[in-house]
Amino acid sequence: MARIVRMPTFAPALSMPQTTIYVSPRSLGAHDTRPPAVVTADLARLFAGTPALAGVSLRVEAGRTIALLGANGAGKTTLLRLLATAIQPSYGMAQVDGLDLGRQADLVRERVAYLSHATGLYDDLTARENLDFSARMLGTPERAARVERALGDVGLADRAETRVRDFSAGMRKRLALGRVLLGQASLVLLDEPLAALDEDGMGLVEQLLAAWREVGVTVLIASHAIERLERHLDGRVLLDRGLVAEVSGAGVSSNPLAPASERRQAVATG
Which of 220, 135, 216 is nearest to 180 (CA)? Predict the structure, then answer.
């Protein structure tokens, strides 16, 4: 049975509903008894011969909240998409919860929830229909109840029958967050989660981060507005031109297989 955690409202000034996070039992347990949430070794992705990710080696401990920082084009979104199995690496290795992304992709997908910068919602479906479709694909237990709860948690219960084509950008982001709540993920990947959200919406994201931390879910966040989320972070990874430039804080480490300059040269000439 999935664990239920109820979080209080983020701050008295906000009118957000109480947030309920459903987490699979596999994501629970002491940090020191669980495998690392993410391990990568020389992970790379090339597009038309140009490296978007040029050999990243990272270890993220379970239950940590880690920020991915860097300029546009640094490789943040590419790393998240690789971990979500949305794209395949050009070379290198990656594991989620000890599972290989290449050989065990289906099992990895059961453990990962991905909020992409593009919400991927269906314009011709209502908010409820979008979440119901996602819940069917995820095999969510008690599907109807979970969909209704997710709509309420993200503040869209009164717009459940509205077609997404009529939603603002902020409402679309809320609905996409609701879709994340339907799964049983031990790893949550958030790409610009604050984009398009108003103050209440940003408070919702903070509520979710606090709730995920309480139940031991690992979160990787790529955001240009990371200052707002600073108090929720354990560690930070700075990417530069597809490589790890700096790692700081707790719960994350880098063990490069070769000096960055050598790896960049190998990609450029390979």
Answer: 135
